[in-house]
Here is the input.
Amino acid sequence: MKLVERKLMAQIAVLVFALSLVSGMASAQPKPAAPATPAAAAAPADEKLDINTATKDQLKALPGIGDAYSQKIIDGRPYRAKNELVQKKIIPQATYEKVKDMIIAKQPKSAAKTDKTAPSPK
Here is the structure.
């Protein structure tokens, strides 16, 4: 090989080595963790927290809801709609605005509606 070709091959080898080091360092870097939010810990993103069945700890995980509000929510059950939290003065409107997209008020299934095989009373 000629001297120019050797120098070029050496430069290419150094470049390949440097690129492999940089890519190796980038893949070894820990990925930044997504910021953990209390609401994310309470329920999956696509599932809302049912205020009629949620535990006190699940309710406390919602933004703006602490011990006192979570206990008031539990004491005021059942709710037909989630906006009853404000109507019944359980939580203030500002707090409701923070949590309204994270909660739902599911209705329990009535035994009369689901049990069609039960004999009717005479």
User: Anything to note?
Assistant: The chain is about 50% helix and 5% strand. Residues 37-43 have pLDDT under 50 and may be disordered. The first strand starts at residue 49 and ends at 50. The two ends are 107 Å apart (CA to CA).
